[in-house]
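Weekly modeling sync, notes
Attendees: S.R. (lead), two postdocs, one rotation student

Agenda item 3: backlog of single-chain predictions. S.R. asked that every request posted to the team notebook include the full sequence so nobody has to chase files. The rotation student volunteered to paste the first one in as an example of the format we agreed on. Action items at the bottom.

Example entry:
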Amino acid sequence: MTAACFTHPIDLIKVQLQTSTSPTKALYATRRIVQEAGILGLYNGLSAALLRQGTYTMSRFAVYDLAKDQLKHSDGSHLMIHEVALATLLSGLAGGIVGNPAEILNVRMQNDQALPLHLRRNYKNALHGLFLMLRDEGPRSLAIGLTPSLIRATLATASQFVSYDFLKDQLLAAGYPDSISVHFSASFIAGLVATTVCSPADVLKSRTMAALQMQSRGKIGVGRMRAPPIWRTCSSIYKNEGFRAFFKGWLPSYIRLCPQLVITFVIYEKLRKTYFSRYS
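Predicted structure, as returned to the notebook:
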């Protein structure tokens, strides 16, 4: 949650770049937001981002650690590749399912300013948005975009956790002490890996959730709202915008994810060595 507070403005710009079907520069999007809503406009949807961190991120960390604990070898040897894959799959699925409602709120609130006035949802905060979703769209709305969300969550967990653990182990094996500098270096590089691996799924997820918002306010109506199939969204992006469109917002994604991972993993390692160790 601490990391989300620092990186939220970059995440907001990233979402608006990903949902835009026309070429848009990050600086232009930033200037438009500030001109329309002031500096605080860059923090639109912060409550949803914090809710997402409290559900999606925390459940991923918890399930990943629990899975690794259950799979660890009695002789202390490292987990096999298929065992690590199973741990990341389980944690990614758990995070994707638990965090999907907050993910929808996050995308909708961050993308609201980019829409015409008559298409905006105007959620006041995450709880208000959740109430309106359930009232206007029913409980099924909580599963909107679940498939791309699960794909992204699984890829994010695998690329972040596995690359971080691998890089940290390599640094420790090279003789470096288990310190903040090791955690910083491993998480910094893990951010580069995760951003590249997750970008296509992240674009698909953002497009799916943003498209549903526009449909729900149009002629289709809330009651008949359906998520477009992933293959159709994927085909449309490739046909109309080209392969590079799957990496829209890569730079702000990395600028957001890198410090977020650094802060998250450094705090996590500190808690693991102090607070968590008391209950192990």
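Discussion: group reviewed the output briefly. The mean pLDDT is 84.
Action items: rotation student to repeat for the remaining queue; S.R. to check formatting next week.
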